[in-house]
Amino acid sequence: MDFTSRIPTEILCLVFHFCRRIDGVPTVDLLRRSVDLDSMASDAQREGRDATHLLAWVKVTQVCARWRKVALEDATLWTDVPAVLGGQWMRLFLSRSNQSTLMVDWGIRNTRLREQIDAIILEHHTRMRTFTSDNLKGDSTTFRLLCRTWPALEDLKISIEGNLPPGLTLLDRHAPSLRLLILRMQTISASWFFLDHSVSVFGGLTAFTLEFADGAESESMRLFLHAMASMPHLRHLRFISKSSFEGSSISETRSGCPAGACRRESMPLKTLTVLCADASIVSHMLRHILPSPDVAVIIFTDGPLEDGEEHVSGPLHGTVAQIAEWKAKSFPRFPFSAMALSIKDNDSDTLVSVHISRTPEALESIIAPLNPQWPHELCDYLIFAFPAPQQFRIHHRHAPLYMYILDTLVPSSLRALVLDLGEGSLPPGLHLSRPTFANVTALRLKDFHVNIIKHLARTDEDGRFLLFPALKILDFQDCDLIGSLISCKFLIRDVEIWNALRHMLECRRERHPLGALYLRVGPDEIAKAREEGFQPVGIDDPNDVRLARKVIRQCIDDMEEAPEIKIISPEEHVASDA
User: Is the pTM of this model over 0.85?
Assistant: First the structure.
């Protein structure tokens, strides 16, 4: 019996959409990642290969006549047009999409495809919901078509090369549904000249990206402010600078911003993202923006930081100083009191991110790994992310940059701190003994490491703790308690990590006792350790197994008896003032 005939139509449609989501309609970026695409002998061979490998989900709709009929009657299944696969597939999807709104991603340098898609845009642009195009020439037919009315357009992502023809306006000043605009241009002056003549379509924008590769003069800065003023609903703003602008900083006179008369646009931004923040033009543009107090500022560099103090004290410092000015002059009632430092390794470098929040209660969200996608749904954080060479954690040569950020933004208000240090060592370049950290009362550590515990017990000649003298709450986020105990050497029925923990607590009790020390232990981990047949991982000798069981159980008993130690589940929320 053919059981496929019993599947309801609604379920079949869900299956088709799910398959399409897994495979995905091919985009320009996807094709660029295909290693053997350029080796195809002809366009026809390329289209056949792409259809086979990149539109496999279409085959699912052809299992039987009924499945094919259901797929053809669902117009929404065909609205994501695979323009990069050529005219045949474009026409097929367009015919099956009926009059539904469309999504189009096109950008391959192919004259034949360009001519085909120009004809399609001319016919179908009034129902296109998204449009993406790379390497778009300012004098091309496609660009001129973008100067027509696009009533259904919501997302527009274009990269424009060359000069712009005079007299053209983006979307013919009418795109009532436009919400996201990503504009990549060679010069910022040309960008704002172009946008200045198209401001009527910006009223509904919630996310805007500007990428440029040249500086700005007084006139373009005026146009920049004019464009910003036309975006009352903008929540996510992103600048991308493609060059370092060495020696091209803008003077106050050239920028049209004389001393003491700098015009600013107040903007209710949720996120302000700056890529390649060493560009002085970006620092200058930020002077003309006044975001809301709960803005999240994300700053990225596109490669390892250069050596030397001179580099880190350049335009990037100017960007951080501008944020500090916002904090001091525009919303002084919102001091930053919580910080998270995360060090993550990847194949080529180390991503170092510093998260700063106005409230310690936000630390639960701060701990989540940095995901540099945009728009962000962040609210209360300033995030600074810097790739650094893999052989460094926080090297002494980078310490001035990190400490500058901290000393500028949180000179004395820091109360809660989260450290994710990978290998569990405290990098000396961070200078955790500095006054910036003296008032920290809540410390969360990503891992349970004996070296960190030992550092917390050290004092100076006057008996003052070198690290976090005001500490009241210590929270280990990932505490593999049993694994940590097993990994230590069993010497005279004792364990190094418990010795260090007990010594640290005793030292703190004498001078400034902790209010709570939280150990986050997995479900049933302690109960399993107390079972008679508990087998410690990595220990085979029967005598060592018996000793390990005894030592681990004794350590757990001692920890539970310590008044400061609280063993909780990994998911349990702990307030920073608990």
Answer: no
